[in-house]
Write a structure and sequence with these properties.
It is a single chain. By secondary structure, the chain is α+β, with helices and mostly antiparallel strands. The protein has two domains: about 35 residues; about 200 residues, Muramoyl-pentapeptide Carboxypeptidase, domain 2. Helices cover about 30% and strands about 20% of the residues. The strands form three sheets. Strands 3-4-10-9 form a four-stranded antiparallel sheet. A four-stranded antiparallel sheet has the order 5-6-8-7. A two-stranded antiparallel sheet has the order 1-2. The structure holds zinc ion. Zinc ion binds next to strand 4. The site of zinc ion has 5 residues, from strand 4.
C-alpha cells in the first residue's frame, strides 16, 4: 500500500516554501512602493487643496515642467509688476484665467491687485509678511474690488478662510450653478455662480488662511491671495526666479 499524500507533500514542500516567499516579496514590495509613491495612495486625511494640487499636476492644461524652471515670465494682465515664476506658476495662471472666462463669462483675472513684488519691498500694511511668495513669483492677489466677488467664510483646522465665488456674467442658466449663498460681503445671494476657489485649486493655486486679528485689520483676511509654491522653500523659489534676469526685466 502506498501513501501518495505523504510522498506528494515531501516533494512539494520546497516548492510550497518558494511560492510563499514569492507571495511575501510581492506583498512587501507593493507595500513599500505605496509608501514611497504618493500617487498610489490617496488618504482621506489629505486635504482637498492638496488633492487639487495633485490634480493640477496631472492637468493637461498645465505644463507640468517641475519646479526647476528658472526666471520669471511676463503675464498679460494689469498689475503693478505682471510677472510670475516661469514654469508651472506662469503656465497654470494662464490656464486658470481661461477656465474662469469659460465658467464665469468674464475675464476676472485680466486685472489683479498684485503679482510680483520687488525683493527689497518692506511691508507697510498689517498682515503683509517680508518673505511673501509674491517676491518669488509664486502668488497673485485677485482684484478684490470687482463687484462680482462673493465671499463665503469657511473654517478648516481652526483657521479662517473664504471661498470666493464669482457672479456669472449671464444669469440665464448657461453659466455656473444656481446657488443660495450667505456671503460676508453682500449678504444673501441666490444666483448662478462660479466657484473660483475650486477652479484655482484644480490648477494648483492654494488660498491661505486669514492671519490673526483679521477682524480688526481687514488687510489680514487674505481671501484675495492665491499661491503655488510647489513645495519650494521661499529662498529656493527666489533663487529660481532671479536666475534668469533677462526675462525678469522690469520684474525686479
Ligand atoms: Zn498676496
Amino acid at each position: 500500500m502506498t501513501y501518495p499524500a505523504v510522498k506528494y507533500d515531501y516533494h512539494r514542500a520546497p516548492y510550497e516554501r518558494c511560492r510563499r516567499v514569492i507571495i511575501f516579496l510581492f506583498v512587501f514590495s507593493t507595500a513599500i512602493s505605496c509608501l514611497i509613491n504618493p500617487w498610489k495612495v490617496r488618504s482621506p486625511e489629505v486635504s482637498s487643496e492638496r488633492n487639487a494640487r495633485i490634480s493640477a499636476a496631472r492637468n493637461p492644461l498645465v505644463n507640468n515642467s517641475g519646479p526647476s524652471q528658472r526666471g520669471s515670465h511676463r503675464i498679460n494682465v494689469v498689475a503693478p509688476l505682471p510677472y510670475l515664476r516661469s514654469g508651472n506658476p506662469a503656465n497654470s495662471f494662464q490656464a486658470l484665467r481661461q477656465s474662469v472666462i469659460a465658467g464665469a463669462g468674464f475675464d476676472f483675472l485680466a486685472r489683479v491687485g498684485d503679482m510680483m513684488r520687488d525683493e527689497a519691498d518692506r511691508p507697510t500694511k498689517p498682515g503683509v509678511i517680508y518673505n511673501s511668495r509674491h517676491k518669488s513669483g509664486d502668488a497673485f492677489d485677485y482684484n478684490q474690488e470687482d463687484s462680482r466677488v462673493l465671499l463665503v467664510r469657511e473654517y478648516m483646522s481652526r483657521r479662517t478662510y473664504w471661498r470666493t465665488y464669482l457672479l456669472c456674467e449671464k444669469q440665464d442658466g448657461s453659466l455656473g450653478i444656481k446657488t443660495d449663498l450667505h456671503t460676508d460681503n453682500v449678504g444673501r445671494v441666490s444666483a448662478y455662480v462660479f466657484d473660483f476657489t475650486a477652479a484655482a485649486g484644480r490648477f494648483g493655486w492654494e488660498r491661505i488662511p486669514a492671519k490673526e486679528g483679521w477682524g480688526r485689520e481687514p488687510s489680514k483676511k487674505e481671501h484675495w491671495h492665491y499661491q503655488m509654491t510647489e513645495g519650494l522653500s521661499f529662498d529656493r523659489a527666489v533663487t529660481l526666479v532671479k536666475a534668469n534676469s533677462s526675462t525678469a526685466a522690469g520684474g525686479w
